[in-house]
Amino acid sequence: GLLSSLDQVMNATEGGQHASVLLVADPGMGSTSLLAYACDSARRRGWTVAQASAPDGASEISLALVHDLVHSLRTAGDRRAVQNPVAALQVHDDECEVGPASTILRDLVAEASLQRPVLVAIDDLQSADEDSLAVLSLATGRMPGTRSMVVAAARPAAAADPRLATWQRLDLGPLDERDAIILLRQSLGEPLDATQ
Known about the structure:
By secondary structure, this protein is an alpha/beta fold.
């Protein structure tokens, strides 16, 4: 099932293989629950977990998602990687510095992945601003060789963005019984055991 697919990608990441994964679903199909499963699983494995969401209205604020990701990475991992990344991401004269912002994001992930694997989890990618999507695309394209995994939940229309064409795509449909039980237990706060 889908959980097994995510677990396999996580195993490969622990072995040094970067992965970028899109969880593609219509509203109400469980992409947020699957993203929460990935975060919980990564924490149980001892990974650094950084989370961000692109809420409705975020598309109007340049680099909003990137700012949230950088902040989450700094609070979750090694804060020395970039001394003041938020200041480095400032927008000047209404122009976004996509190249430098992607380098900052990539460097934060790469530095943190030297200590332990890193999961970057993004919810509601369809609401992200264009500049954040460009930064994310550039940064993830330059992460091979890092023990990192970027997982983003997105609607089908957003997942069709050509900048995300190289990402592994997991289309969510009805869950099998095992996956449904695991996600239900997780949502109820019960201990997870993937062998059940």
